[in-house]
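So, can you check what follows?
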Amino acid sequence: MYSNFFKIALRNLAKNKASSFINIAGLAVGMAVAMLIGLWIWDELTFDQYNPNYARVASLMQHQSFNGHRGTENSIPFPLEAELRDKYGEDFKYLAMASWQGEHILSFGDKMITQEGDYMAPDITRIFGLKMQRGTLDELNDLHSILLSASCAEALFGQENPMGKLIKIDNQLDVKVTGVYEDLPFNSTFHKLTFIAPWELYVSTQEWIQNARDENQWGNNSFQLFAQIADHADMEKLSAKIKNVKYDKVDAEEKKFKAEIFLHPMTDWHLNSNWEEGVQTGGFMQYVRLFGIVGVFVLLLACINFMNLSTARSEKRAKEVGVRKTVGSLRSQLVNQFFCESFLVVIFAYVLAIVFILLVLPWFNNVADKQMTFPWQQPTFWALSLGFILFTGNYLAPQSY
Protein backbone atom coordinates (compact mmCIF):
# COMPACT_ATOMS: atom_id res chain seq x y z
CA MET A 1 0.00 0.00 0.00
CA TYR A 2 2.67 2.50 1.04
CA SER A 3 4.72 1.77 -2.06
CA ASN A 4 1.70 2.85 -4.10
CA PHE A 5 1.40 6.02 -2.00
CA PHE A 6 5.04 6.88 -2.68
CA LYS A 7 4.64 6.24 -6.40
CA ILE A 8 1.66 8.60 -6.55
CA ALA A 9 3.58 11.14 -4.45
CA LEU A 10 6.47 11.06 -6.91
CA ARG A 11 4.11 11.56 -9.82
CA ASN A 12 2.46 14.55 -8.10
CA LEU A 13 5.85 16.11 -7.38
CA ALA A 14 6.95 15.57 -10.97
CA LYS A 15 3.66 16.95 -12.28
CA ASN A 16 4.02 20.18 -10.29
CA LYS A 17 7.70 20.82 -10.92
CA ALA A 18 7.75 24.53 -10.15
CA SER A 19 5.92 24.39 -6.83
CA SER A 20 7.80 21.22 -5.82
CA PHE A 21 11.14 22.88 -6.55
CA ILE A 22 10.23 26.00 -4.57
CA ASN A 23 9.02 23.90 -1.64
CA ILE A 24 12.07 21.62 -1.61
CA ALA A 25 14.64 24.37 -2.26
CA GLY A 26 13.16 26.69 0.39
CA LEU A 27 13.17 24.00 3.04
CA ALA A 28 16.63 22.82 1.98
CA VAL A 29 18.16 26.28 2.30
CA GLY A 30 16.64 26.72 5.76
CA MET A 31 17.88 23.31 6.85
CA ALA A 32 21.35 23.93 5.43
CA VAL A 33 21.69 27.28 7.23
CA ALA A 34 20.45 25.77 10.50
CA MET A 35 22.82 22.81 10.20
CA LEU A 36 25.81 25.04 9.43
CA ILE A 37 25.02 27.10 12.50
CA GLY A 38 24.59 23.89 14.46
CA LEU A 39 28.02 22.63 13.32
CA TRP A 40 29.59 25.95 14.37
CA ILE A 41 27.89 25.83 17.78
CA TRP A 42 28.96 22.23 18.31
CA ASP A 43 32.52 23.13 17.41
CA GLU A 44 32.46 25.94 19.98
CA LEU A 45 30.85 23.88 22.73
CA THR A 46 33.36 21.04 22.30
CA PHE A 47 36.38 23.38 22.39
CA ASP A 48 39.29 21.71 24.22
CA GLN A 49 37.27 18.55 24.87
CA TYR A 50 39.87 16.44 23.06
CA ASN A 51 41.59 16.40 26.47
CA PRO A 52 40.53 13.42 28.63
CA ASN A 53 41.30 15.57 31.69
CA TYR A 54 39.15 18.44 30.40
CA ALA A 55 37.06 18.88 33.55
CA ARG A 56 40.05 18.82 35.94
CA VAL A 57 42.53 21.06 34.15
CA ALA A 58 42.95 24.75 34.96
CA SER A 59 45.28 27.67 34.54
CA LEU A 60 46.33 29.75 37.55
CA MET A 61 45.19 33.36 37.38
CA GLN A 62 45.01 36.31 39.74
CA HIS A 63 42.95 39.39 40.54
CA GLN A 64 44.75 42.56 41.58
CA SER A 65 43.61 46.09 42.38
CA PHE A 66 45.15 49.12 40.66
CA ASN A 67 44.00 52.72 41.11
CA GLY A 68 40.62 51.65 42.40
CA HIS A 69 39.99 49.08 39.68
CA ARG A 70 40.13 45.30 39.91
CA GLY A 71 42.09 43.67 37.09
CA THR A 72 42.44 40.02 36.12
CA GLU A 73 45.42 38.40 34.43
CA ASN A 74 46.76 34.93 33.67
CA SER A 75 50.38 35.81 34.41
CA ILE A 76 51.66 34.65 37.78
CA PRO A 77 54.90 34.81 39.86
CA PHE A 78 57.46 31.98 39.70
CA PRO A 79 57.39 31.09 43.45
CA LEU A 80 53.67 30.24 43.26
CA GLU A 81 54.36 26.78 41.82
CA ALA A 82 56.65 25.74 44.69
CA GLU A 83 54.25 27.15 47.27
CA LEU A 84 51.34 25.18 45.86
CA ARG A 85 53.40 21.99 45.81
CA ASP A 86 54.54 22.46 49.40
CA LYS A 87 51.25 23.46 51.01
CA TYR A 88 48.56 22.07 48.74
CA GLY A 89 50.35 19.21 47.01
CA GLU A 90 47.65 16.69 47.91
CA ASP A 91 45.07 18.75 46.01
CA PHE A 92 47.03 18.87 42.76
CA LYS A 93 47.84 15.91 40.56
CA TYR A 94 50.15 17.86 38.24
CA LEU A 95 51.60 21.37 38.09
CA ALA A 96 53.53 22.77 35.15
CA MET A 97 55.24 26.12 34.69
CA ALA A 98 55.36 27.58 31.19
CA SER A 99 56.64 30.54 29.24
CA TRP A 100 54.53 32.22 26.57
CA GLN A 101 53.79 30.61 23.23
CA GLY A 102 55.49 32.29 20.31
CA GLU A 103 57.31 31.79 17.03
CA HIS A 104 60.76 30.22 17.07
CA ILE A 105 63.17 29.01 14.41
CA LEU A 106 63.87 25.29 14.36
CA SER A 107 66.84 24.20 12.28
CA PHE A 108 68.16 20.82 11.21
CA GLY A 109 71.28 20.96 9.10
CA ASP A 110 70.66 23.55 6.39
CA LYS A 111 66.89 23.41 6.81
CA MET A 112 65.17 26.09 8.89
CA ILE A 113 61.45 26.47 9.63
CA THR A 114 59.44 28.86 11.81
CA GLN A 115 57.10 27.17 14.26
CA GLU A 116 55.04 28.17 17.27
CA GLY A 117 56.13 26.54 20.49
CA ASP A 118 56.61 26.94 24.20
CA TYR A 119 58.90 26.02 27.07
CA MET A 120 56.94 23.92 29.55
CA ALA A 121 57.52 21.68 32.55
CA PRO A 122 57.36 17.87 32.01
CA ASP A 123 53.89 17.43 33.57
CA ILE A 124 52.34 19.47 30.77
CA THR A 125 52.21 16.36 28.56
CA ARG A 126 49.72 14.79 30.98
CA ILE A 127 47.85 18.01 31.77
CA PHE A 128 47.20 18.61 28.05
CA GLY A 129 46.48 14.91 27.43
CA LEU A 130 48.94 14.65 24.55
CA LYS A 131 48.71 11.53 22.39
CA MET A 132 52.21 10.36 21.65
CA GLN A 133 53.01 8.87 18.25
CA ARG A 134 56.65 8.32 19.18
CA GLY A 135 58.21 8.32 22.64
CA THR A 136 56.39 8.58 25.97
CA LEU A 137 54.85 11.30 28.11
CA ASP A 138 58.04 11.48 30.18
CA GLU A 139 60.36 12.59 27.38
CA LEU A 140 60.60 16.21 28.60
CA ASN A 141 62.53 15.14 31.72
CA ASP A 142 65.75 15.37 29.69
CA LEU A 143 67.03 18.95 29.90
CA HIS A 144 68.07 18.98 26.21
CA SER A 145 65.01 17.24 24.76
CA ILE A 146 62.18 18.52 22.58
CA LEU A 147 58.75 17.20 21.61
CA LEU A 148 57.44 17.91 18.12
CA SER A 149 53.92 17.77 16.77
CA ALA A 150 53.37 15.36 13.90
CA SER A 151 53.04 18.20 11.39
CA CYS A 152 56.19 19.93 12.68
CA ALA A 153 58.19 16.69 12.51
CA GLU A 154 57.04 16.13 8.93
CA ALA A 155 57.89 19.70 7.94
CA LEU A 156 61.38 19.39 9.40
CA PHE A 157 62.28 15.78 8.58
CA GLY A 158 59.82 14.69 5.91
CA GLN A 159 59.21 10.94 6.13
CA GLU A 160 62.40 10.27 8.10
CA ASN A 161 62.24 9.01 11.67
CA PRO A 162 62.86 12.18 13.77
CA MET A 163 63.70 10.35 17.00
CA GLY A 164 67.15 11.15 18.31
CA LYS A 165 67.83 13.83 15.70
CA LEU A 166 69.67 16.94 16.94
CA ILE A 167 68.13 20.32 16.12
CA LYS A 168 68.60 23.94 17.18
CA ILE A 169 66.09 26.37 18.64
CA ASP A 170 66.61 29.95 17.44
CA ASN A 171 70.16 29.00 16.38
CA GLN A 172 71.15 28.95 20.05
CA LEU A 173 69.94 25.88 21.94
CA ASP A 174 70.85 22.33 20.93
CA VAL A 175 68.12 19.79 21.66
CA LYS A 176 67.33 16.22 20.73
CA VAL A 177 63.97 15.02 19.45
CA THR A 178 62.67 12.58 22.07
CA GLY A 179 59.00 12.41 21.13
CA VAL A 180 56.32 13.19 18.56
CA TYR A 181 52.71 13.92 19.55
CA GLU A 182 49.55 14.13 17.49
CA ASP A 183 48.61 17.63 16.37
CA LEU A 184 46.12 19.16 18.76
CA PRO A 185 42.64 19.69 17.26
CA PHE A 186 41.91 23.03 15.63
CA ASN A 187 39.14 23.71 18.15
CA SER A 188 41.55 23.74 21.08
CA THR A 189 43.36 26.56 22.86
CA PHE A 190 46.82 25.27 21.96
CA HIS A 191 46.17 24.02 18.43
CA LYS A 192 49.14 26.07 17.18
CA LEU A 193 51.53 24.49 19.68
CA THR A 194 53.87 22.60 17.34
CA PHE A 195 56.74 21.95 19.73
CA ILE A 196 57.42 21.82 23.46
CA ALA A 197 60.87 22.34 24.94
CA PRO A 198 61.81 21.77 28.61
CA TRP A 199 61.00 24.59 31.00
CA GLU A 200 64.26 24.05 32.90
CA LEU A 201 66.24 24.52 29.67
CA TYR A 202 64.64 27.95 29.29
CA VAL A 203 65.33 28.82 32.93
CA SER A 204 68.99 27.77 32.64
CA THR A 205 69.58 30.20 29.77
CA GLN A 206 67.77 33.24 31.23
CA GLU A 207 69.34 34.94 34.23
CA TRP A 208 66.30 37.11 34.89
CA ILE A 209 64.14 33.96 35.25
CA GLN A 210 66.66 32.43 37.64
CA ASN A 211 66.37 35.57 39.75
CA ALA A 212 62.57 35.43 39.55
CA ARG A 213 62.71 31.92 41.00
CA ASP A 214 63.75 33.30 44.37
CA GLU A 215 61.10 32.61 47.00
CA ASN A 216 60.77 36.33 47.71
CA GLN A 217 60.13 37.38 44.09
CA TRP A 218 56.33 37.45 44.27
CA GLY A 219 56.01 40.73 42.40
CA ASN A 220 57.34 39.45 39.07
CA ASN A 221 54.21 38.25 37.24
CA SER A 222 55.80 37.01 34.03
CA PHE A 223 54.89 33.31 33.79
CA GLN A 224 52.13 30.81 33.22
CA LEU A 225 51.16 27.95 35.47
CA PHE A 226 48.87 25.08 34.49
CA ALA A 227 47.42 22.48 36.81
CA GLN A 228 45.43 19.29 36.91
CA ILE A 229 43.63 18.97 40.22
CA ALA A 230 43.56 15.71 42.17
CA ASP A 231 40.69 13.31 41.58
CA HIS A 232 39.23 13.98 45.04
CA ALA A 233 39.49 17.78 44.76
CA ASP A 234 36.72 20.20 43.82
CA MET A 235 37.71 23.00 41.45
CA GLU A 236 35.66 25.74 43.11
CA LYS A 237 36.57 24.80 46.68
CA LEU A 238 40.26 24.47 45.85
CA SER A 239 40.21 27.85 44.12
CA ALA A 240 38.82 29.44 47.28
CA LYS A 241 41.36 27.54 49.36
CA ILE A 242 44.40 28.96 47.57
CA LYS A 243 43.19 32.52 46.94
CA ASN A 244 45.44 34.11 49.61
CA VAL A 245 48.62 32.21 48.72
CA LYS A 246 50.29 35.24 47.18
CA TYR A 247 48.77 37.86 49.48
CA ASP A 248 50.17 36.08 52.55
CA LYS A 249 53.68 36.08 51.06
CA VAL A 250 54.13 39.61 49.75
CA ASP A 251 55.41 42.55 51.82
CA ALA A 252 53.29 45.43 53.07
CA GLU A 253 53.90 47.49 49.95
CA GLU A 254 52.63 44.68 47.68
CA LYS A 255 49.61 43.92 49.85
CA LYS A 256 47.93 47.10 48.62
CA PHE A 257 47.24 45.29 45.33
CA LYS A 258 45.11 42.73 47.19
CA ALA A 259 46.28 39.82 45.04
CA GLU A 260 43.90 36.89 44.86
CA ILE A 261 44.95 33.65 43.16
CA PHE A 262 42.30 31.42 41.58
CA LEU A 263 41.85 28.49 39.23
CA HIS A 264 40.41 29.19 35.79
CA PRO A 265 39.07 25.81 34.57
CA MET A 266 39.71 24.63 31.03
CA THR A 267 35.94 24.40 30.60
CA ASP A 268 35.87 28.22 30.66
CA TRP A 269 39.02 29.03 28.71
CA HIS A 270 37.26 29.63 25.42
CA LEU A 271 33.65 30.54 26.13
CA ASN A 272 33.82 32.29 29.51
CA SER A 273 37.04 34.25 29.65
CA ASN A 274 35.90 37.87 30.07
CA TRP A 275 36.43 39.66 33.37
CA GLU A 276 35.32 43.07 34.61
CA GLU A 277 36.39 44.41 37.98
CA GLY A 278 37.39 40.92 39.08
CA VAL A 279 34.04 39.38 38.15
CA GLN A 280 33.57 36.83 35.39
CA THR A 281 31.19 38.38 32.84
CA GLY A 282 30.95 35.60 30.30
CA GLY A 283 32.63 35.78 26.94
CA PHE A 284 32.15 34.06 23.61
CA MET A 285 29.25 32.05 25.04
CA GLN A 286 26.91 34.97 24.35
CA TYR A 287 27.60 34.59 20.61
CA VAL A 288 26.94 30.86 20.83
CA ARG A 289 23.55 31.56 22.38
CA LEU A 290 22.81 34.30 19.83
CA PHE A 291 23.61 32.06 16.86
CA GLY A 292 21.61 29.26 18.45
CA ILE A 293 18.55 31.53 18.50
CA VAL A 294 19.22 32.54 14.89
CA GLY A 295 19.50 28.88 13.84
CA VAL A 296 16.21 27.96 15.50
CA PHE A 297 14.52 31.02 13.96
CA VAL A 298 15.77 30.15 10.45
CA LEU A 299 14.63 26.55 10.80
CA LEU A 300 11.25 27.63 12.15
CA LEU A 301 10.87 30.10 9.29
CA ALA A 302 11.64 27.38 6.76
CA CYS A 303 9.04 25.10 8.33
CA ILE A 304 6.40 27.83 8.34
CA ASN A 305 7.17 28.60 4.71
CA PHE A 306 6.87 24.89 3.96
CA MET A 307 3.44 24.80 5.60
CA ASN A 308 2.23 27.92 3.80
CA LEU A 309 3.28 26.65 0.38
CA SER A 310 1.62 23.30 1.05
CA THR A 311 -1.55 25.03 2.22
CA ALA A 312 -1.65 27.11 -0.95
CA ARG A 313 -1.49 23.92 -3.00
CA SER A 314 -4.21 22.21 -0.97
CA GLU A 315 -6.97 24.26 -2.68
CA LYS A 316 -5.84 23.04 -6.09
CA ARG A 317 -6.00 19.47 -4.84
CA ALA A 318 -9.58 19.70 -3.56
CA LYS A 319 -10.84 18.13 -6.79
CA GLU A 320 -8.44 15.22 -6.38
CA VAL A 321 -9.60 14.68 -2.80
CA GLY A 322 -13.25 14.77 -3.89
CA VAL A 323 -12.69 12.18 -6.63
CA ARG A 324 -10.81 9.91 -4.23
CA LYS A 325 -13.62 10.10 -1.67
CA THR A 326 -16.18 9.39 -4.38
CA VAL A 327 -14.43 6.17 -5.38
CA GLY A 328 -14.27 5.04 -1.75
CA SER A 329 -11.01 6.31 -0.33
CA LEU A 330 -10.97 6.53 3.45
CA ARG A 331 -9.84 9.63 5.31
CA SER A 332 -6.88 7.68 6.76
CA GLN A 333 -5.79 6.73 3.24
CA LEU A 334 -5.90 10.36 2.11
CA VAL A 335 -3.86 11.43 5.16
CA ASN A 336 -1.29 8.69 4.48
CA GLN A 337 -1.07 9.76 0.86
CA PHE A 338 -0.36 13.37 1.80
CA PHE A 339 2.01 12.24 4.51
CA CYS A 340 4.06 10.23 2.00
CA GLU A 341 4.23 13.20 -0.33
CA SER A 342 5.30 15.53 2.45
CA PHE A 343 7.79 12.98 3.73
CA LEU A 344 9.36 12.77 0.26
CA VAL A 345 9.63 16.56 0.06
CA VAL A 346 11.41 16.66 3.43
CA ILE A 347 13.77 13.81 2.42
CA PHE A 348 14.65 15.54 -0.86
CA ALA A 349 15.15 18.84 0.97
CA TYR A 350 17.38 17.17 3.56
CA VAL A 351 19.56 15.54 0.88
CA LEU A 352 19.79 18.85 -0.98
CA ALA A 353 20.70 20.61 2.29
CA ILE A 354 23.60 18.18 2.81
CA VAL A 355 24.79 18.90 -0.74
CA PHE A 356 24.64 22.65 0.01
CA ILE A 357 26.65 22.16 3.21
CA LEU A 358 29.34 20.10 1.49
CA LEU A 359 29.67 22.79 -1.17
CA VAL A 360 29.87 25.80 1.14
CA LEU A 361 31.66 24.22 4.14
CA PRO A 362 35.20 25.04 2.88
CA TRP A 363 34.18 28.68 2.36
CA PHE A 364 32.38 28.75 5.71
CA ASN A 365 35.46 27.34 7.48
CA ASN A 366 37.57 30.07 5.92
CA VAL A 367 35.19 32.81 7.02
CA ALA A 368 34.68 31.42 10.53
CA ASP A 369 38.35 30.40 10.98
CA LYS A 370 37.39 26.79 11.60
CA GLN A 371 38.27 23.32 10.38
CA MET A 372 34.87 21.71 10.70
CA THR A 373 33.95 18.55 8.85
CA PHE A 374 30.58 17.02 8.14
CA PRO A 375 29.69 14.69 11.05
CA TRP A 376 29.21 11.52 9.03
CA GLN A 377 30.10 9.31 12.00
CA GLN A 378 28.17 11.16 14.71
CA PRO A 379 25.09 9.15 15.83
CA THR A 380 23.72 12.22 17.63
CA PHE A 381 23.64 14.20 14.37
CA TRP A 382 21.77 11.46 12.51
CA ALA A 383 19.34 10.98 15.40
CA LEU A 384 18.53 14.71 15.42
CA SER A 385 18.19 14.70 11.63
CA LEU A 386 15.80 11.75 11.71
CA GLY A 387 13.76 13.43 14.42
CA PHE A 388 13.51 16.62 12.38
CA ILE A 389 12.48 14.73 9.23
CA LEU A 390 9.77 12.80 11.07
CA PHE A 391 8.53 15.90 12.88
CA THR A 392 8.39 18.05 9.76
CA GLY A 393 6.91 15.38 7.51
CA ASN A 394 4.51 13.84 10.01
CA TYR A 395 3.29 16.88 11.94
CA LEU A 396 3.73 20.10 10.01
CA ALA A 397 2.87 18.88 6.53
CA PRO A 398 -0.43 17.10 7.26
CA GLN A 399 -1.63 20.23 9.07
CA SER A 400 -1.50 22.07 5.79
CA TYR A 401 -3.79 19.75 3.86
